[in-house]
Amino acid sequence: MRLLSILLISAASFASLSCESETKPASPLETFQTYTKAMKQKDTTTMKLLLSSESIKMHEQEAKARGLTLDDVVKSQTLVGEDQKTVEFRNEKIDGDKSTLEVKTQGAWVTVPFIREDSVWKIDEKAYTDNMMQDMEQSDHKIDELINRGRQQP
């Protein structure tokens, strides 16, 4: 009887452990919502946990260049305005280990990229910054073309 009790307790323990390991990871939307809450609470530890490794490296480089701490840089690089009371979301798209989510911030829709690292969705601020820089370069190129066209003699 004692052996049967031990077997039942062991089986129950094993079953509960296997159920815990099957917990579904947070979606990109859930990750962003957690990040937003952490940002509002000024919880930089949680914010850093939700950022991709490349984003952390980028922020570390910026912190070093500016003579700041990593936490200072993470706090300043929010994707949502601190005074913004509500955040609207739409169009979550998942493609393999990459994802995007459109977020309305300060009246405009922006696309926030995510990357899956170690089976967890993380905000990819590095890709967000790279995309912004690319957009700015394309805009500058278009402006240069317009200026140069205006200088040409007919």
- Largest sheet features: 4 strands, antiparallel
How many H/I helices? 6
Low-pLDDT sequence parts: 2-21
Shape: globular
β-strand amount: 15-25%
The assigned structural class equals: alpha+beta
Query: Spatial order of the strands in the main sheet?
Result: 1-2-3-4
Residues in helices, as a percent range:
55-70%
Distance between the termini: 102 Å
Care to count the β-strands? 4
- Name the average pLDDT: 79
- SSE order: HHHHHEEEEH
Q: What is the radius of gyration computed over CA atoms, rounded to a whole number of angstroms? A: 23 Å
Structural description of this entry:
With 154 residues, this protein is an alpha+beta fold. The protein contains six helices and four strands. The chain has helices at 2-21, 28-40, 44-49, 53-66, 70-76, 125-151, and strands at residues 88-95, 98-105, 108-117, 120-123. It has a four-stranded antiparallel beta sheet with strand order 1-2-3-4, with helices on both faces. β3 and β4 (120-123) form a beta hairpin. α4 (53-66) packs across α5 (70-76). The longest helix has 27 residues, at 125-151. The relative contact order is 0.13. Mean pLDDT is 79; it is low at 2-21.
Keywords:
single chain, 154 residues, alpha+beta, 4-stranded antiparallel β-sheet, 6 helices, 4 strands, 19% strand, disordered N terminus
At a glance:
The chain has helices at residues 2-21, 28-40, 44-49, 53-66, 70-76, 125-151, and strands spanning 88-95, 98-105, 108-117, 120-123.
